[in-house]
Design a protein that fits this description.
6-stranded mixed beta barrel; about 50% helix; 13 helices; single chain; 2 domains; 11 strands; alpha+beta; about 450 residues
Length: about 450
């Protein structure tokens, strides 16, 4: 039997029982729609999580610390040297890391408790330092004012809640001057304040720095995933570093007899996420400890893979029910068309031709049902997106797209619907092919 004749005969047979075949096709469409709706929700949530993390710069960031930070707590990374012989994170290490291939930016992680003076009142506040690359973060997309004018500007960006503490109307704080009071570390040879013979000592001097408020943000930088994110005001990293503020690492290193300026942590930005592991290996060879979110993202991808799998399983249940409807429809067609099948065989049609006919009918229902299901699933997704947007706006949050239907999902859903339909047609097609033409012609 020629392909054209087979297709024409299958189309005619499907038209003869419009209601039953239509309901079967609709059942396939509902199954595909539930599958598409659930998987598009899982894909959308995964895309949202990935985009948020990528925009925060967390994927292409490496955190560098001294092995001393973890000595005695981690057997796998324990340095066998004495604590004073371990490599510390200082300016020398910072310069070495900055010279490595694929390293874009190296900045110290600075978070210090300070005192802010404004209108003759003092307010305790944690100060965090922001590198130039932080400007691309989503926390600054809707900020009031602007980002720092230069890496060494004497400017400050204030968190929204802290701005409300300083002014009833936070906008009035923009352009105003605040005074930052902090403790400065002064080395022995600076100003003759200490005995030069004591190389491990330093003085703590109270200092003040006037700052201009240039911006107000209502979100934590870096998605709140870094220690400096939870500060109340922010300075450019270069400015904060030049103030030489006393940090916890200074006290610890003085007790460990480590001279010179050190940092508790360095943040290294890499040219791309694919180069993170390579940069980590190079930094480890310098005798420093590194951490990135590669392991965390692997766990995240594993979670979404399992999440998508379960969504796909539950979405496929409706399609499995639809496959039973296909079996029922085609079995009924075998019973109703016994005489027709007998005539076909009497005219020379083989068992394979009869099977092809039933498979063509099932495939046609699968294609139509799959395409219709994709359309219904897309509509369900749009309704989910619309409802989510309204809910987020009522909560005072920016709208987010939690739904995504990629082209590969559209094609995969239709192919899956056709495959399920063909599998469901195996038994009816085999049963029709086994009919004895003589008995079929006698059937009334």
């Amino acid at each position: 039997m020629k392909g054209y004749d087979l297709l024409e005969l299958a189309t005619r047979n499907l038209r003869e029982s419009k209601l039953r075949n239509g309901l079967t096709t609709l059942g396939i469409a509902v199954g595909v729609a539930s599958l598409v709706a659930m998987l598009s929700l899982g894909i959308g949530l995964q895309q949202l999580a990935n985009s948020r993390l990528a925009k925060s710069g967390i994927f292409d960031t490496v955190f560098v610390t001294s092995p001393q930070e973890f000595r005695g707590n981690d057997d796998n990374n324990r340095d066998q040297k004495e604590p004073e012989q371990n490599r510390v994170v200082d300016d020398a290490a910072r310069n070495q890391i900055a010279s490595l291939p694929n390293v874009v930016e190296v900045s110290p992680e600075i978070r210090v408790m300070t005192d802010v003076r404004y209108k003759d009142k003092s307010y305790p506040a944690f100060m965090g330092a922001l590198p130039p690359s932080a400007k691309s973060g989503d926390a600054f997309d809707a900020m009031q004012g602007q980002y720092f004018s230069s890496p060494d500007a004497k400017e400050a960006i204030v968190a929204q809640e802290f701005a409300k503490t300083l002014e009833k109307d936070p906008k009035e704080l923009l352009g105003k001057e605040i005074v930052l009071r902090y403790a400065e570390r002064r080395n022995p040879n600076q100003g003759g304040q200490q005995d030069p013979s004591d190389e491990f000592s330093f003085s703590v001097i109270r200092k003040e720095q006037a700052l201009k408020v240039v911006g107000i943000i209502d979100q934590e930088p870096f998605g709140g995933m870094r220690m400096i994110s939870r500060a109340r005001l922010f300075l450019p990293t270069q400015t904060a570093d030049s103030l030489n503020m006393v940090q916890f690492s200074d006290v610890r290193n003085a007790a460990n007899a480590n001279a010179g300026k050190t940092y508790s942590m360095l943040t290294v930005r890499v040219s791309s996420a694919g180069k993170v592991e390579q940069v980590q290996d190079a930094i480890k060879k310098l005798g420093l400890r590194t951490y990135s979110v590669l392991d965390a993202t692997k766990s995240l991808r594993r979670f979404f893979a399992i999440f998508d799998m379960f969504l796909g399983i539950f979405g496929s249940l409706a399609l499995a029910v639809a496959s039973l409807a296909i079996v029922n429809t085609l079995v009924m067609a075998v019973l109703e068309r016994r005489r027709e099948i007998g005539v076909m065989k009497a005219l020379g049609a083989g068992d394979g031709d009869v099977k092809k006919l039933f498979f063509t009918e099932a495939g046609a229902m699968g294609i139509v049902g799959g395409a219709l299901g994709v359309g219904i699933g897309w509509l369900i997704g749009r309704l989910i997106h619309f409802g989510t947007t309204i809910y987020l706006k009522r909560q005072g949050l920016p709208p987010e797209n939690v739904w995504l239907v990629p082209w590969w999902l559209v094609g995969a859903a239709i192919v899956f619907a056709v495959l399920v339909s063909l599998i469901a047609a195996l038994y009816p097609a085999a049963r029709a092919a086994k009919l004895d033409p003589i008995q079929a012609l006698r059937y009334e």
